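**Fold in tokens:**
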Amino acid sequence: MTPDVFTHRPRLRPDILLSAPLLRGPATVHLIKDPADGSSFEVGPKEYFLISRLDGDRSLEEIGAEYAAAFGRRLGEANWQQLLGLLGTKRLLEGAPARDVPAAPPSSPFTGNLYKGSLRLVADAGATTGRLHRALRPLLCPPVLIALLTLCLVMEVVLAAGAGPLVRDTWWLLRQPVALVGVFTLLWLSTACHELAHGVAARHHGGTVSEIGLRWRLPVAIMYCRVDNYRFLASRRHPLVVGVAGAFANLLFLLPFAAWWAALEPGDPTRRVLSGLLLLGSVQALVNLVPLPPLDGYTMLGHALGVSNLAPESGRYLRLRLRDRRAAAAYPRRARALYTAYGIGSSVLVCLIAAGLTTAAFVLLTP
């Protein structure tokens, strides 16, 4: 490498995706993904600092000066050779020859067996969510979303105010097999709306959807919508929107039934059935916001905090703290605080949920 190389102005391919910083264990990492073949890898903050500045405008000398100002160390030729060699090998720089990605053979839409498996429902999930997004775009502007959210909140306040009769009607519903089948069918449709809402929200904010299908483990079968690239969305707020979209769709699904319920007289059998639908549907929506895996609330909390694998890393840190306090002390202060808080908080939350379910079962089953 000669001094002339420092005048070189390499450019990262414009389609390469770079993530915001993520805390993983004691380390902070960034994800880099090549959407051409789906490959990805992790780099540290210093490597990310350099890679994110390969814009074709700044020379290596200019980037090196910025690096020295930020980290107090100037890079030598060997450092640049190693970094550019890595990026060149992975063909991430503009002008690199296209990677030969063999065409994947057509795969069967069905995997697994009759007891446990999945079925891909659409050939092109991206196109399907694109069509849904275009159809729903008028509803995705902030004023409309705020109005719909307000209606959902009003509905939940009204239901909470009448929680006693609602619970009694739901207990009655659980002993009506025919009506119960109808309610659970509607709740299943609400789950399908939940999954598609994730896909539409992701599409709205620049994400992609790779698959829409049906997954089952008898006797349960649910739809799923696999969202890709959510780690690479432009704003940290956008993954949160994608995460909460499912619960929001569940509540929107209940709005017309809430209006029907409000129009009926107390004691009407149809109102009692609707009470069960509204209570069970609200629980279905709100439970998804609880920050425990694998619920949406857990995913949202990880995005909000910029932490990857929050639950397992919290458990790993707390176990390490019991065995080797010196090794645990090597974690950054932020990691120690987050992992301790989530480990303790999630344990308390699980205990509270278990106590609440036990109490509810005791009250309902006591003559």
Summary: The chain is about 55% helix and 10% strand. Residues 333-365 form the longest helix (33 residues). The mean pLDDT is 91. Strands lie at 17-18, 22-24, 27-34, 39-43, 110-112, 116-120, 208-217, 220-228.
